[in-house]
Amino acid sequence: MKILLVEDEKSLAESIMEYLTGADYRCEVAYDFDSACEKILLYEYDCILLDLTLPGGNGLHLLKELKQRKKQSGVIIISAKNSLDDKIKGLDIGADDYLPKPFHLAELGARVNALIRRNKFEGETELVFGPLRLDVAGKVAFVNQNKMELTKSEFDLLLFLVSNKNKVVSKNAIGEHLSGDEADRFDNFDFVYSHIKNIKRKLSESGGGDYIKTIYGLGYKFEL
Fold first, then answer.
1. 36 contacts 54 by C-beta, under 8 angstroms
2. Would you place residue 148 in the very low, low, confident or very high pLDDT band (cuts 50, 70, 90)?
3. How far apart are CA 209 and CA 71, in angstroms?
4. Spatial distance between the Cα atoms of 3 and 1, rounded to a whole number of angstroms
5. 101: which residues sit within 8 A by CB, 6+ positions away?
């Protein structure tokens, strides 16, 4: 799961990034309005942590832009501006949650987890598709009770494909999901092919079927 942190206080941003990265999230950060706007327009995120007071602009304007472009990212406002008006404006525009500063990182992590479960998995902590079971909270996959030995990136990719069940996901989208804005620097997406190949092999070794289909010229699709 991929998170964008929009926060101008660098020491706080570093603490949040360290905590969420330790919880196996892929995190990117924007320290000002313009860089945040660029990332929001170019890339997709599962969750955006949004400060309201930013160099160069107001976080509420970013939220409006996000909703006007019908981006599906969940948004948690994190702000020292704890006025009722700010909270109501943010929620009315389309934010999913509001967490006033200062806050405990554990509470932020819990809210991120809950938001992603609601938005991506209808609140479920486990996803079951035939013999395949994904423990979203524990980040573990099983086939017929046989645990798959997946790396963090492989589990994240399998979860991404499962969450887009029966949809074709392009190599570009997978590359961006796994590597964020660094994907723009790659000459090719051989690393995507390598990850897909490893997951398909491990699914087979665990007793699963050929659930990940290659759609030539387009990308990949998860289906049972």
1. yes
2. very high
3. 33
4. 7
5. 12, 78, 79, 80, 82
pTM: 0.72
Taking only the tens place, the pLDDT of each residue in 160-216 is: 898 888 899 988 888 888 776 554 555 567 888 899 999 999 999 998 889 999 998
Distance from C-alpha of 8 to C-alpha of 14, rounded to nearest angstrom = 10
Calculate the alpha carbon distances from 73 to 27, 130, 172 in Å. 14, 28, 18
Task: Tell me the angle at which helices 171-179 and 152-163 cross, rounded to the nearest 10 degrees.
Answer: 130
- 49 - beta bridge partners? 5, 76
Burial of 2 (0-12, 13-18, 19+ CB in 10 A): buried
**Residue entry with tokens 């979860």:** 159
Amino acid type, 215: I
Domains of the chain: 2-121 (3.40.50.2300), 126-222 (1.10.10.10)
Distance CA 103, CA 36 (A): 22
What's the maximum distance between 2 C-alpha atoms anywhere in the chain?
Answer: 55
